[in-house]
What does this fold into?
Amino acid sequence: MGPTILRIAIPGLTIVGVHICIVTGHGVYAISCLAAAAALHLVLSIWSGFDRRVVLILAGIVMALVLIQVIILQGEQEWAQIIALPPVLIHGWLAWMFGSSLLPGREPLIRRFSRLHRHGLPPELEVYTRRLTVLWTTMLSVMTVLSLALGLFADPHLWSWSVNIAMPVFAASMFLLEHAYRGIVYRHLGQNSPYHTLRTLLRPDTWIAP
It folds into this structure.
């Protein structure tokens, strides 16, 4: 299994691992799933020769998660409050990344994805990719608010089914349906594979404006 396949598989396996920990009554170990995922990404980043900043950030995340897990196991913090925080931060960060790219003088994020993926952006996709960036900004903003509300007010089982299962399934469905739509409407532009899009998304430079 190559690094790209592993990078695609790790988030899904991590979410499933966290969910299993919670619904089986072992939520105290849920942070360990996140730490293992971050550690695997760290190894893959070193193996792939990623920028040193990426490696240092991942190393810091691994150490922080290990420390949090130790604190939880010592009974000094409520695990449910802590495990509910990462989805809020992730959805919020993604919403900010998408939304801030719509500001004047910036390139809409999905337009950048398409440009890097196709090595140039066809004129037909200029408006379409901007509107799609607006759609994802809105969707991720709603997920951020829902993740926060569920983390504060829902019991761990309902939170996990909603945040760890329903939200990723909805986002993945949106991703695949959009590719299917683009493959039909813009089929004259050539290849539009979800796999190749994911490969583009996994490149560190994809998220950094040129």
About this structure: The chain has two domains: 1-78, 84-210.
